[in-house]
Amino acid sequence: MGTRKADLAAPEDRQVLGQVPTTRIVGGVAVAYAASVIVQNAMFVGTGSPGYGDPLGDVLAYHAANRAAVAVAAGLEALNLPLLLLFVTGLHGLVRRRGAADWSRLAVAAAATFSAISALVIATHIAVVLAADGKAEPTPAFALIWQLHAAVFALTLPALGATCIGAALATHTSGLTRPWQRLLGVAGGSSLILAGAGNLAIADGSPLVFVGVSGLAAWLVWLVVTGLRLIRGQG
User: Record keywords: tRNA processing included (predicted)?
Assistant: First the structure.
């Protein structure tokens, strides 16, 4: 009789034991993704990357002089995209076990959309660097590529905002995070969506972009805090 009970309990025990490393892996991916995005943005800030409203001459001069920095940032994006997708799909698996997968589906769909648009952002940025090579003055083609890059970047904001909101609500509903983390994620995601609604203004150099920057900062803080919580096995 005791052997039979042990046999019946074994699958459940194996499932519980299997959830612990999975939770930690998802948490580790979240922290790694946040760290990579922080390094990527710090590189642009540190090299004095121009804003979308700056004169084209300054934009040309920056990209002509900082080809290596943009190349490293583009390489980091090749790491960021799979990390983000791995995080949201892993998170979906965690919350599904807890019967709260609805919001995580939004996070997965939004993250896939964000990844596709982000690839275009990096592609156009690479084109800007290549177009700046050997140029003394900006050409109409250079101006067009830069404007396209700005417009595509602005459209990443609502997709990232939806990812942030979906992930924050999914983790809260499933009991993986505390209420203040839900508020942080929803506030950050809402800021990103609000900024994205003004995509034309942002592409034209509007300071509205800083609303999106604040949302991005909230998303990164949420990722780090949530990731560390999952690594510790809390929730």
Answer: no
